[in-house]
Write a structure and sequence with these properties.
- By secondary structure, this protein is α/β, with parallel strands linked by helices.
- The chain has a domain of about 120 residues: Rossmann fold.
- Helix content is about 55%, strand content about 10%.
- A five-stranded parallel sheet has the order 3-2-1-4-5, with helices on both faces.
- Strand 1, helix 3 and strand 2 form a beta-alpha-beta unit.
- The longest helix is centred in the first third of the chain and has 35 residues.
- The termini are far apart.
Length: about 200
């Protein structure tokens, strides 16, 4: 019995180390991919979809409202919500200057984080009875935004149509895009630990 137990323990030990090594190798591959090619994981695009409303998250370099205005002009959705405090006025102006009428724009200007964007905007979505929501944000922010909204309102349907501004690596240093993209991995991990938002 003792010999069997000893052999079993040795087998378990080998299995543990084999699993640990495989796990570390997988983590190293994911980390390398994330560092050198963050867009392959961070950028989520739902493709050619239609919805009840476009939700433009605050932040970025004002590429987000420009992208939303383009989607609106192509009749992807009839209404736009600007969410986030601090840049709602300039984002409204960008929408207006790109042909979006004021009556088609709603504003949520209390949020300071992506989590608050989701919680505060979802209240407005429910009030307006919107069910198919298209999120518009920068490409590097699109995964965290989509997963946060889906986590906060699993009964609603969310899509992602990101802005591809500064996707090309040659533009990263000019707009600090590389730094923003790499920081997103830490934010994804933080949202998973703090709010339970699974990034996968």
């Amino acid at each position: 019995m003792g010999r069997f137990t000893l052999e079993a323990l040795r087998g378990l030990r080998k299995l543990f180390w084999r699993t640990a090594i495989i796990g570390l190798l997988a983590a190293a591959i994911i980390a390398a991919t994330g560092y050198f090619h963050p867009q392959t994981f961070l950028c989520v695009d739902s493709g050619d979809v239609r919805g009840d409303v476009l939700v433009v998250l605050g932040g970025g370099v004002h590429d987000r409202p420009a992208c939303a205005a383009d989607l609106y002009s192509r009749q992807v959705a009839p209404t736009i919500i600007l969410t986030g405090a601090g840049d709602e006025l300039i984002n409204w102006r960008i929408l207006h200057d790109n042909g979006v009428p004021g009556k088609a724009i709603l504003i949520e200007n209390k949020s300071l984080t992506t989590q608050e964007n989701a919680l505060n905007t979802i209240k407005l979505l429910r009030t307006k009875h919107f069910h198919r929501i298209i999120l518009v944000t920068s490409w590097y922010h699109s995964r965290r935004a989509l997963k946060t909204f889906e986590h906060s309102a699993p009964d609603l349907t969310f899509y992602s149509r990101p802005s591809y501004f500064a996707l090309d690596r040659k533009d990263w240093s000019k707009y600090s895009t590389g730094h923003r993209a790499h920081l997103e991995f830490m934010k994804l991990a933080g949202y998973w630990l703090r709010y339970g938002v699974n990034p996968f």
